[in-house]
Specification:
Blueprint lengths: L4 H19 L5 E3 L8 H16 L5 E3 L5 H6 L7 E2 L9 E3 L12 H12 L3 H4 L8 E6 L3 H4 L1 H7 L3 H13 L6 E6 L2 H7 L9 E4 L6 H9 L3 E3 L4 H14 L4 E5 L19 E3 L9
Parallel strand pairs: 1-2, 1-4, 2-3, 5-6, 5-8, 6-7, 8-9, 9-10
């Protein structure tokens, strides 16, 4: 079969890659982060990897991307874990992975130390009042999960059905005087979640346009927390668990995404209360 131009280019790239791998044998590995849209949840998993590598005596780092700029200003302890493109050495090893499986890519102890030393030291946490232990905070993920067909097919499910099961589970831990909703789709929440008023005398919504770091801190400091299937939510859950320990409650959906394995969320802390099933199933 004749070789096409595309095949020839692929072979050439492969040959170059093999040649460079022989040269790039320096002591430092740089995690080559993708250029796709990447929120703070995904970034935190990468920084966790670099943090753990530093504790093991390595000088490894994560490649800086423009999407990190705002979050690095809010989480200054992360900056030393990042290397700018201009500072990457020719001999630096390159690697690409996501590092998100709880108990496999990181331990509970590693996670807790990272959060204590590099997340909770952020100035924004010092400006936040103590959370109300009776409030149930609900984090709802909308955005491109539902506005773009590709992502809806990968991540979408019946959020309304899930929340009804999760709120019922939260009621098992005590009465709910107040529910507070934090979301990137507040208008959708106000239109679709009116039934929350039948559960709690007071239902409030974080104001539209609230800065992302303020949203993260609000969710992370909640003692009774219902998560979405997003890495932002997972990290808020991790942080809440570190802050409140056995005095806190976290509920999370079993489902994460259809294009990973069987769809199960591999990022979940085993100590959380997982909502295994919802009416109609996760594909409804």
């Amino acid at each position: 079969m004749p070789t096409t131009m595309t095949d020839a280019r692929a072979l050439a790239r492969s040959a170059v890659s093999r040649a460079l791998s022989v040269v790039r044998r320096g002591p430092r590995t740089v995690l080559w982060t993708p250029t796709i849209r990447m929120g703070v949840g995904n970034q935190l998993y990468l920084w966790l990897w670099a943090h753990n590598r530093r504790l093991e005596g390595h000088d490894d780092a994560v490649l800086w991307r423009p999407a990190m700029a705002t979050w690095l200003s809010e989480l200054p302890a992360m900056d030393e874990l990042v290397v700018r493109p201009s500072d990457v050495k020719f001999t630096d090893r390159r690697d690409v992975f996501w590092n998100q499986t709880f108990g496999q890519d990181f331990t509970r102890e590693q996670l807790q130390r990272f959060i204590t030393e590099r997340v909770l030291t952020a100035p924004a946490f010092g400006r936040t009042p103590t959370s109300d232990p009776d409030t149930v905070l609900i984090n709802v993920r909308r955005g491109e999960y539902y506005s773009e067909a590709k992502f809806r097919g990968q991540y979408g499910f019946d959020v309304d059905a899930y929340l009804k099961v999760a709120v019922a589970a939260a009621l098992d831990t005590g009465t709910i005087p107040r529910i507070h909703v934090v979301s990137d789709g507040i208008d959708w929440c106000k239109a679709r979640l009116g039934w929350l008023g039948d559960i709690a005398p007071q239902v409030t919504f974080l104001a539209e346009g609230t800065p992302p770091m303020e949203q993260f801190v609000t969710v992370s400091t909640a003692r009774r927390l219902i998560l979405a299937n997003s890495t932002f939510s997972y990290w808020a859950g991790y942080t809440s668990s570190v802050l409140h320990g056995a005095d806190g409650f976290v509920w999370a959906p079993w489902f994460h995404a259809r294009h990973f394995g069987d769809g199960r969320a591999f990022q979940l802390d085993p100590a959380w209360r997982v909502i295994e099933h919802i009416p109609g199933g996760w594909d409804s």
